Amino acid sequence: MAEMKTVFTKDAAFPAGPYSQAIATSSTIFCSGQIPCTPEGTILTRPDSTITQMTELCIKNLTAVLEAAGSSISKVVKVNVFLTSMDDFVEMNGTYEKFFTHKPARSCVAVYQLPKGVPVEIECIALA
Fold it and tell me: For FRET with 95, which of 40, 59, 78, 109 sits at 20 to 30 Å CA-CA?
C-alpha cells in the first residue's frame, strides 16, 4: 500500500474545514480546492476584488501547497475550476493561462455557491 503524507504550509490559506491542503503519495499530489484567501485569512470578495485577482490568489495558494509537497505548478496534470457564474469564465481563463502554460487537463463548472461566498475555487492533481 502506498504511503500518504498530509501536506500543510503556512504560505497558503488555512483549510476552511476538516481537510488537508493536500495529500501526497510517492507519485502524486492531490490538492484540495483553494479559494481566494490569503495565508493571513483575508478573503477576497467583490466588489473590492476582480476575478483576475481572485484567480491569481487561488493559484498562488496552490503553488505554495505544491511546493510544500515537493512538487510545482509545472507538474500539474489535472485542474478543476469551480465558478459561481460562467460570466467570469473569460476573465478567469486570462489569468489561468499565465500560470498553466503547459496546458494540463482541465474541467471548469458553474456551481450554485462556494465556501465563504467566493466566486472561484481551484483544485489540482500534480506529479510528485
Answer: 40
